[in-house]
Amino acid sequence: MARPLHRGSSGARISGGSNDFWDSQMKDKTDKEDLDRRVSSDQNNFAFRIPVRLLLGENSPSKPGIGENGFASEPLLAVTPRSRHKLTMLLLKLSLVLIVILALTGSFWWTISISTTSRGHIYHGYRRLQQQLVSDLWHIGELSLGSSRLKDTEFCPQEFENHVPCFNVSENLALGLSDGNEYDRNCGQAMRQNCLVLPPVNYKIPLRWPTGRDVIWSTNVKITAQEVLSSGSLTKRMMMLEEEQISFRSASLMFDGVEDYSHQIAEMIGLRNESNFIQAGVRTILDIGCGYGSFGAHLFSKQLLTMCIANYEASGSQVQLTLERGLPAMIGSFTSKQLPYPSLSFDMLHCARCGIDWEQRDGIFLIEVDRLLKPGGYFVWTSPITNAQTFLRNKVNKKRWDIVRDFAENLCWEMLSQQDETVVWKKTSKRNCYSSRKSGSGPSLCSKGHDVESPYYRPHQACIGGTQSRRWIPIEQRTTWPSRANLNKSELAIYGLHPEELAEDAETWKMAVRNYWSLLSPLIFSDHPKRPGDEDPSPPYNMLRNVLDMNARFGGLNSALLEAGKSVWVMNVVPTNGPNYLPLILDRGFVGVLHDWCEPFPTYPRTYDMVHAQGLLSVEADQQRRCTILDLFTEIDRLLRPEGWVIIHDKASLIESARGLTTGMKWDARVVEIESNSDEKLLICQKPFFKKQAN
Fold this sequence. Notes:
With 695 residues, the chain is an alpha/beta fold. The protein is 35% helix and 14% strand.
């Protein structure tokens, strides 16, 4: 019986028996096989040794065979079927490893050899996935910070009762700002206060329109009796303080002054009366330093829409009282920055003792007026400075008037008339007027790079803007109101739109307004009780007055509300990070403004009856969380009157996330499915009336 083989033994053993010879021969064969494996292995790259060893197993020989003479045996001297089989298996294993390596190498080279176009497709696909991921995770992030995000939002301290973020006159004065710059808006370092602003003690729900236009509750605004009595503005004086109310109507002759004043302006333009402003192409008016909105309140009955702007005022605010009356207004200053309206926005600008020194700073304020006026628009200025009868005894006023008159002429304005303290200019409708001026006689035209159509609080420019705009259409050539709301084919082409698109948008909003109105009725109107079995009462047409559309797009909500006969005006806001259709909105005869919703809106607390936002959460989500839903909601709460409404239309996932925050906001809320679109939902909320107790 043969002895077991001892692999790797050295030396030779001589024996005369046949078994010994067989053992010796088998040993030689084994040694040769080991040597064969060693030679074969050495011929391969060293990198293959480890995989091969793993394939052969732990019992595979690790040392080469040694011949009888102490040298390596020749591997081809003796080849048996067994050794051939082992060699074949080894080659198969090596081939398998080689195939795997070649496959991996080929895959690698194929990957890095993708063409530039393919890489671009992959990159853009990745970007789309990344943006969708950010959008989906934005609302998840609202809930991922733990229970602290879901706890009730606290009430603000009492000093926030009339607080307007970004406007801090005392801080600006401490920074050395003066000459009107202390009233500038500064949101750069403003810290967000995610708290709920309580109304003043004895706050009352405003009276419905049109009664609320003429009578407001004195406790709803911050104004003293002394401020009412000492008010210096022409339209500020047209008010009376009663026991709990401020009244803007009276049988006295003083209150008939607004009608007479408006009639005078119409005659100076060449019209029979103010009712003919519409026929002259006037629809939208920017009233600078508007007093308390009496000029705009009177013209509203003539289908004219007047936007009031005035500086921030801690008490006795023109903007706050105007909004309380249900009239358009916002905080805005002419001092150092362009207003957030596009060029060629308004048909008329009006300043009645508005406190602006138009002759100062080389006429920069008049240049801003020119930018905002449509071609053929009117600038109306009422001031003691313009009264020619006082020039003999007041040389300073005459000098100031001469500066303004000469500069207006260099702007290609035509002075139509001057009566008492009022003067009316008409902006040129012809662009070639600027080239016909004497060399160096006035400000130059803005270059294409500086002529920004929709600036956002940009520093004033000392050049004439808007002259290169495709929207340069004289007001006399525009369709008069209300037909103006439906722009013609050539006007829509300026914005890359077709009449069919605007018509489709209008139909969508008509249906939306019908649905909205029915959704607002069931839970709110305690003064509209119903008997068992009756349908929910329809909300009255004047249920809302001040409406804020946070993402107005074409102004479709505004148009649909007016067409439905609702007694509303709409502040159409176009976000700075979305498509800018604000010029289109203003050309339709509506009012609106450009705004960044990660900043506070320039108005006072409790100024809107309804806040609407379609797609705004999606727009902000695409900006990778510059601000949170909670930031947006606390700002909405600040703007909203008690018992006011919030309607949010957005992706279902974002709506569900937003719904989770309404509990902490103390809003009454419900989610409404949209039958025609399962991917989107409505969030309907109402802000409750929290009454603060007197100390």
